[in-house]
């Protein structure tokens, strides 16, 4: 393998440019409208995940939630918005780096309260299996390779249900 081939292979496995990665629009009117791109998919990353997001004015990135395992970080690249966290509304702006540890003390989501798009990086530790809770809707989600399961918290079964 020539050095240029090796460099090209390393670039493919280790580097993503958020301006070049295709984005997917996640739209659920009237409150949710974001464009997102996975940066870590297909890389050599084992423990970190990263995405690039553009949140439309007046919209919410995702439902209010907290993680039981994953820690998250958000790097605000462009714009202003509000971080709803732990029941409070905290203004955020370009240059801010937000750290959200796992646990019920820090339910969170980002709301674009401005009239311009918000650009940010979302980074997480990608622990699996992961359990997320959604305080506004009372849902619980379980996420692991091959399983994505959401249910209302109060709709649980008895441990012995269906067992012989």
UniProtKB/TrEMBL annotation:
Coiled coil: none annotated. CDD domains: cupin_SPO2919-like. It holds the Pfam family Cupin_2. Keywords: Metal-binding. Residues 54-123 form the Cupin type-2 domain. This is Cupin superfamily protein. It comes from Pelomonas aquatica. The lineage of its organism: Bacteria, Pseudomonadati, Pseudomonadota, Betaproteobacteria, Burkholderiales.
């Amino acid at each position: 393998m020539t050095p240029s081939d090796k460099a090209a292979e390393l670039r493919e496995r280790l580097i993503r440019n958020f301006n070049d990665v295709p984005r997917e629009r996640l739209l659920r009117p009237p409150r949710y409208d974001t464009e997102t791109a996975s940066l870590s998919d297909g890389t050599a990353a084992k423990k970190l995940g990263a995405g690039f997001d553009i949140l439309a004015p007046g919209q919410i990135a995702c439902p209010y939630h907290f993680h039981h395992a994953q820690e998250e970080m958000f790097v605000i690249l462009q714009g202003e918005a509000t971080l709803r966290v732990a029941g409070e509304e905290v203004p955020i702006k370009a240059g801010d780096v937000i750290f959200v540890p796992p646990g019920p003390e820090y339910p969170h989501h980002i709301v674009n309260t401005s009239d311009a798009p918000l650009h940010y990086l979302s980074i997480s530790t990608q622990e699996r299996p992961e359990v997320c809770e959604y305080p506004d809707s009372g849902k619980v989600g379980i996420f692991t390779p091959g399983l994505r399961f959401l249910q209302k918290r109060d709709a649980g079964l008895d441990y012995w249900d269906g067992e012989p």
